[in-house]
Amino acid sequence: MLPTSLVVVIATVSMSLAPALLLFWSWRRGLFHDLELQSRMIFDERDWRLERPWESFAEQRTREVLYGRRENPKAGEWGGATSGPIDVDDDAAGLRRKITASDEYGSTADDWRDTSRHDRA
Amino acid sequence: MSADDNGGQRKDFMARTGLVALGAFAVMASAIIILVIIPKTMLSEVRASPELPPYTAVQLRGRGTYIANGCVYCHSQQVRDPAFTTDVDRGWGSRATVPEDYVYDRPHLLGTMRTGPDLINVGQRLPSIDWHLIHLYDPRSLNSWSTMPAFPFLFEERRPEDVMPNDRVVRIPGPRAPKGVVIIAKAEAIALSEYLLSLKRQYPVSDSVESSGHRSLNAGGRHD
Amino acid sequence: MSAPTSLVTSSSRPDGVLLTDEVDALTSLRGLAPADLEVRLRADASSRRAVLTLFAVAIAWLLIGSLFGELASFKMHWPDLLVRQGWLTFGRVRTAHLHAVNYGWATAALIGTSLWLMPRLVHTELKGVFMAIVGASLFTLGVAIGIIAVLAGYSDGMEWLEAPRYAAGPFLVVGGGLIGLSLFRTVAARTNDHLYVSVWYILGAFIWFPMLYIVGKWPTYTGVESAAANWFFAHNVLGFWLTAMSVGAAYYFIPKVLGRPVYSYQLSVVGFWSLAMFYSLNGMHHVVGGPMPEWMITTSIVASVFMFIPVIATGINLHMTVVGRFGALRYSPTLRFIVIGALCYTAVSLQGSFTALREVNRVTHFTHWTVAHSHVGAYGFVSFIAFGAIYYIVPRLVGHEWPSASLIRWHFNLVLGGIAIYVLSLTWAGVAQGLALLDPQLPFQVSVLRTLPGLYGRSLGGLIMTLGHFVFAYHFWIMVRKPELSRRNRPPFHEAQPIIYTAEAEAARVGKHTPSGGAAPVPTMRHADAVGAPPSQQSLQAPLEGGAA
Q1: Is C391–A80 a contact, with Cβ atoms under 8 angstroms apart?
Q2: ipTM value for the complex
Q3: Which of these, A120, C145, C172, C504, has the minimum number of CB atoms within 10 Å of its CB?
Q4: What distance in Å separates residue C48's CA from the closest CA in chain A?
Q5: Global confidence as pTM
Q6: Is residue A120 in a domain?
Q7: Which helix (H) or strand (E) holds B157?
Q8: Per-window interface: C 154-183 vs B, CB < 8 A
Q9: pLDDT grade for B13, boundaries at 50, 70 and 90
Q10: Which among B42, B38, B78 has a CA at the least distance from the CA of C288?
């Protein structure tokens, strides 16, 4: 099924070469230099600090160190609903976890589901 | 530090709304030129064969009914190259259809589904208007396996005594015939059937490059 | 608390963990685009009415479109169902379904999502809110006029373009134009120097759709040039309208929920421009083998295969961002829907590239395979992303979470199960049909009879999906109209006070639900999530100092 006709060759070349050159030229001109920054612009302070229950303890700790005291997710933070009995004093969005009282958020690793094992990419 | 001071450096390519918008417009415009404008210019030179008459007024009305009832969603109107596939072997035409065959079609009805058979040559295959009228009223009276919808609203049911001499009576065969009423074809049904009968594209077309570029390129371009 | 130089042992370095020297870079990054809470709330507040209106309209169209679709599906295997009325004939009901779900549901839901996204992305309020609402109303009216006209027997004849150009066209054009204008004004009023990828896609969609519409609705085509214009429009409306807004939404929600930037922003540039370049030339793959100049069809086949590039670029970005974080799908319905949507995007595009090849097209063209393929795209990809977006956005507009986790679960399971049954039945039916049609020894009726089981399967799948839509619509209704049913409505969403358990509080909570005597659980507030007030100075300036509040 390998294409052989002239039309295909011309179409391939025109569709790939010109835009590739344009992008390459733009890159050489430095027009893509701070792209990485743009990938972070949708986040605010709260997003960086937000506690995400699926993250491993190490990841949570990193966030805390880098961005400050972690924030609890609000109810329905990620588009869901809280299931379970209504409890006035219970806030975390459907999570059932305990933090043993301490002045720091320095919980032991046991308090967290250890998800680090299946977090490898 | 101001919100978005990127240190006085030149703004990124993708951060310039105007450039991105212009680029988007340009890409689409070039595609329109390649796939719509250039073909339109090329195809405007295509002329119908003298063996293909334009649609008559009745046939055009019938074509309108074909469009209004969405026949195109189950029926195609194109015969593909016999070297490519089996449309011709199946009896849907003696040759592949070419752009000249569609000069009078506004808009095209090429279709993309074959829930039902291809119709571009149905006028040749099924040249009886009565067949079409019966089939439109109740497809299953002719083909029990058919899943085509019935179109009774294109017909009237009258008591036998109310039939006028000019009425087009449709006699439904078999056990599915309605009892006690006479089926009269409305003008729409007759026009639609006339349109179907006009679908014949078997006349020979020249192989020359001017005619369409379709057949001549076909020979070389099949390997893609 | 000072920043440690290393947080984890050397044997594991989960993604997201950074060393000290990278921390400085990040600190400066944050200063670049502080979409702080205030800005975000103002953005949400400005778009609230327009977005909620559009979502309500979209969901209404979803129900209408689902019913039309289900009826059309029944008619394909029960052809004598409801044939006496012209307005219910299959050919018109099918078109009504297509318009209601694509121009009604998908378009309205994605426009609503875009109107919510844009202010957030450019850190400003939505400009021209009234214009957007008027535009949305006019557009909806246009779609409704188009559908009513088609049911009454007035069709402009080309697939995807049936709505009569002079009856419905003005409403669609003016309405869509007003919405686009609102979006463009919002972008023009932006306060930051950076455009996130979603902005390119949304901007692109609103530049491209008018161009496509003009090409599609141009009144002077004849013969096969009308076919070229038809399939140019119909294919590109998928890629440059529905896909563009959907991919734009996915690029926002996936990183946002995960708190993790897109895998490779450079790839997103490649993805955007290669999508624009190659998708636009795909259209003629709908007429492979047809009476069109060969070079056009070949160009489209080549372009269809080249679609591998943008699809893989986008696929890498969206999937690799999630890899390692699949646990998040347990917590976020938004992510569940959008990740599946992104997977379906990759799947449907690869499927499309494959199907454009002549040898494959020979089997699949004119069969139900195409219908299955189109539903993987318009439903598995576009609609799922719309569902996910709605689940994320609406709580932020009404101030409380969704009332029922179980209704979300039902919705998700029903529509996922439904579309799986749908696609599997119809793909199988399509291949059976195609193979039967290819054999000239087999009479035509064989192809019809072989598809019947698949058609029943499709009706079943569609029925399950429709049920899911009714569940979703009901949930949306009570979400918006009955806030008291939302468990977390006290206090309101954006003023929720987080509470940390102490040992006594936990014991008391487990013991009884109602407070009594001295054993009443005492909420201990560790920090207030002050809303409306600017983020505390401390937390902004002293992240590395541990930010003791």
Answers
A1: yes
A2: 0.88
A3: A120
A4: 16
A5: 0.83
A6: no
A7: strand B155-158
A8: 154-159
A9: low
A10: B78
